Amino acid sequence: MSAIDAHIHLDMYDEESAKAIIADLEASRVQACIAVSRHLVSCEATKQLKSLAPDRIFAAYGFHPEQELPTETQVEALIDWMSEHENDMVAVGEIGLPYYMRHEVEESGKPFDIIPYIQLLERFLQLAAQWDKPVVLHAVYEDAEIVCNLLAKYGLKRAHFHWFKGSNKTVGRMIGAGYYISITPDVLYEEEIRTLVREYPLELMMVETDGPWPFEGPFAGEETHPRMIHAVIEQIAELKGKSVQETAAILLQNTTRFYKLS
Asked: What per-residue confidence (pLDDT) applies to 1?
């Protein structure tokens, strides 16, 4: 069955690989990809890749939090560009909080000020509310609680937590709010993700590769490709005790509805 890769960094592949992936989507039974962005140059590259297959590549524009903060001039330039291309994007993203970078810095014995990252995230959430766009979120563990508070503050209902990991309390809160998560190929070998799949409603779930991020298990040594989502769907079906066909249909419908692709 056809499926959608709900989160991929197409601009992070080399140009030849990205074009090959796009050309291979139909043969791979991948109906579409949600291509997220990391900064202004990334947004521009994503837009260019989208132009190669506008019926299959759908763009999200934003600033990935796991990097050095931009200057105010850079933020304004990005926001101006996003405003100009508001109608080209299906979501604001990838945005969120720098969980992994913060922990790496703190483990080295240095302080890390999270406040400016929260303030930057708030600016993007305000824009999403203004533009009536969903948000694609990088927010795991305790950071997800902060983000849930901000989503409530700005009245944002359409939230996609990609490659989510978190406590039972946070999972319950997100389910109650109707927030979506997406599952990567590590569901084939990571018990933490397998447990999450068992607990989270299938009706609030999507699948993703987060390519070009590499995976282990059966995909060790392979370049990450959207076709990997079919194995993810099969694993979700097994964990949910449903047929692959029913599971694939629900996941496809979820993603199509969330991103308003039809």
From this structure: 82
CATH code at 111? Answer: 3.20.20.140
Laid out side by side, the sheet with 89-96 consists of: 3-8, 30-35, 57-61, 89-96, 135-138, 159-162, 180-183, 205-207
CA–CA distance, 92 with 80 (Å, rounded to integer): 13
How close are the terminal C-alpha atoms of the chain, in Å? 18
Q: ∠ CA 159-64-142 to the nearest 5 degrees?
A: 60
Nearest to 34 by CA among 185, 165, 137, 120: 137
Domain extent at residue 234: 3-258
DSSP-assigned letter for residue 71: P
**Tokens representing residue 217 in the block:** 């298990």
**Chain centroid to CA 31:** 17
Domain count, the chain: 1
pTM, to two decimals: 0.98
Distance CA 161, CA 228 (A): 19
**Rounded-to-integer distance, Cα 55 and Cα 64, Å:** 25
Q: What is the pLDDT of residues 163-194, one digit of tens each?
A: 999 999 999 999 999 999 999 999 999 999 99
Query: CA-CA distance, 50 to 34, in Å (whole number)?
Result: 10
Q: Six-digit token pair at 136?
A: 């694609």
Residue 30 in contact with residue 227, Cβ under 8 Å?
yes
d(CA 221, CA 213): 11
In one-letter notation, the amino acid at residue 49 is L
Q: Is 217 left (phi over 0), alpha (psi -120 to 50) or beta?
A: left
